[in-house]
Amino acid sequence: MGQLAGKTAIVTGGTTGIGLAAAQRFAAEGAHVYVTGRRQNVLDAAVATIGHGATGVRGDVADLADLDRLYATVAGDNRRVDVLYANAGGGEFATLEQVTEKHFDETFAGNAKGMLFTVQKALPLLNDGASIILQSSNAATLGNEAFGVYAASKAAVRSFARTWAAELKGRSIRVNAISPGPIDTPGVDGLAPNQEQADQLKAYLVGTVPLGRIGRPDEVASAALFLASDQSSYITGIELFVDGGRNQI
Fold first, then answer.
1. Which of 12, 35, 98, 113 has a CB 3.0–4.6 Å from the CB of 94, allowing a cystine?
2. Long-range contacts from 142-149, C-beta under 8 angstroms, 24+ separation
3. Is 150 an active-site residue?
4. pLDDT, tens digit, for every residue of 36-83?
5. Into how many domains does the chain fold?
6. Of residues 34, 71, 85, 150, which has the active-site annotation?
């Protein structure tokens, strides 16, 4: 019996990188996993990769109608939710001088607004005792140049975890945040205009990590499984860093 046997999980942004790794791990542990993504072809490929026990629902967490469709699909399958991993989000580099209204709005729409309504709209379907996992970032507590808007949006996520842990304690729903450090994902590659600069960025990031390497998506997925399962039954409101010590030393 897997740690999530018989449970239903949702992973937003579950088509690549950390989200896909977590969805695979949840399914391997016995959960039926709903994954979301904005591109249908990538979503279809992710569902095929996850295999048995996965349902794909195309959508953007910043679009409330898409979130309604996600939860209508879950309800239509006569399922209730035991694990919600609000993972979808992203960002781009921009210095203070370069920040535009569009950059700000798009970053906060995906990382903060989308996070809030992903959780709010799930509440009627969440079982008492469910686990909510919010994807933050170690950038939220660092002063990385040209990453201020992204960092601020992820700091909001950390704040949400504290507040919602307090608000949902009456239902024994646990809310925790994961803050990854540098992880080898398509999202990191996408921060650079080409592969050569992406490799340079990752080489720089490795130099900031005490463990001396960039992390793997499956290492974050392991942390997500811990927070999703009964192994963390007495843990709520925390920020779990999966960063090779980058924010700790």
1. 98
2. 142/247, 145/95, 146/93, 146/94, 146/95, 146/98, 147/91, 147/93, 148/94, 148/95, 148/96, 148/99, 149/91, 149/94, 149/99, 149/103, 149/104, 149/107, 149/108
3. yes
4. 999 999 999 999 999 988 999 999 999 999 999 999 999 999 999 999
5. 1
6. 150
